[in-house]
Amino acid sequence: MKGVLVEYAAGGFSEGHTHPQSAFIYATVLEGEIRSQVNDGPVTVSKAGESFSEMPGDRHGVSENASKTKPAKLLAVFVVDTSQRELTFPIKK
């Protein structure tokens, strides 16, 4: 297991990405609101105290702060192969 604190400034975002094929991810929003899209699913907004998960092989096309004026934070817990060092890979366009 590996924990990653993701902090987004107001209007901040991550480029589209995937995670290791062995990774199951459970994320909890700690502050603010996070806009997210996994695979071709709907874009959703998770608020502080809410959680979401990603399965091995999922594509995370949208991951961003839903606010242009307030910061947001989430804690992502990865259950991943112990030999895996890199946790995020850009989606090739």
Explain how this protein is built.
- The protein has about 90 residues and is mainly beta.
- It is built from no helices and ten strands.
- It has strands at about 1-10, 15, 15-20, 25-30, 35-40, 45, 50-55, 60-65, 70-80, 90.
- The strands form two sheets. Strands 2, 3, 5, 6, 8 and 10 form a six-stranded antiparallel beta sheet that branches. A four-stranded antiparallel beta sheet has the order 1-9-4-7, with no helix packed on it.
- Strand 5 (about 35-40) and strand 6 (about 45) form a beta hairpin.
- The mean pLDDT is about 90.
SSE inventory with pairings:
Blueprint: E1 2-8, E2 13-14, E3 17-18, E4 24-31, E5 33-38, E6 44-47, E7 51-54, E8 59-65, E9 72-79, E10 89-90
Antiparallel strand pairs: 1-9, 2-8, 3-8, 3-10, 4-7, 4-9, 5-6, 5-8
Question: What are the main properties of this structure?
Answer:
four-stranded antiparallel beta sheet; mainly beta; six-stranded antiparallel beta sheet; 93 residues
